[in-house]
Amino acid sequence: MFQLTLRRRGISDQAVLRAMEEVPREVFVEDLDRADAYRDSALGICCGQTISQPFVVAYMTEQLRLKKEHRVLEIGAGSGYQAAILSRLAAQVLTVERFRTLADTARKRLERLGYHNVEVMLGDGLNLPPNLGPFDRIIVTAAVTEISEGLTSRLEKDGILIAPVGPQHGVQTLVRVVRTEAGLERKELVDVRFVPALPGIAREL
Ligand code: SAH
User: Fold this and answer.
1) Angle at 133 between CA 51 and CA 18, to 5 degrees
2) How far is the CA of 154 from the centre of ligand 1 (A)?
């Protein structure tokens, strides 16, 4: 059923569909939401954040056109679910989260599931340490008002970045940026709703 829904909505990349099938989403949601884990909707997680809807996870992953050798950066680890999907399709994933509780929980969960090529880092994705990167792919899973130079400068040649861009509360547009010989190529994809990217490491939790 899960795969069928994703296919119907237009996901066709076999490797992405396989990863979506393989990663147990019920492990990433709150205990009370387990029965709804495979419904095509976003669900609440700790710290007032959300685990994205399966279709959006699959769609963003497909748009990244991942290869087995890629190094991937994710901003917004949340539950760790998107990072787990990425880990099945790339060599290494570094995911950054500003809430300590979320970062610690995601790290333990991913370790327990044996996804050893994912590193979870407590940090601010809007203000990353200068020595981090470059990456073949960057995925931002919290809404940003613009795609900063601080992120695009970490893209390898032919690198792809995907991020929801728009107002913090409301509808955003998924934007894909490709670093080509000629410069950065930008394309708007579909409308989405994400929780906002906020500056700094969260004070509480
Ligand atoms: N990808 C996640 C869902 C992301 S929800 C999953 O698969 O579950 C967005 C996440 O981005 C939230 O956990 C939020 O705390 C985090 N976030 C927001 N601003 C951030 C920032 N500046 N740096 C790092 N993480 C941030």
Assistant:
1) 40
2) 19
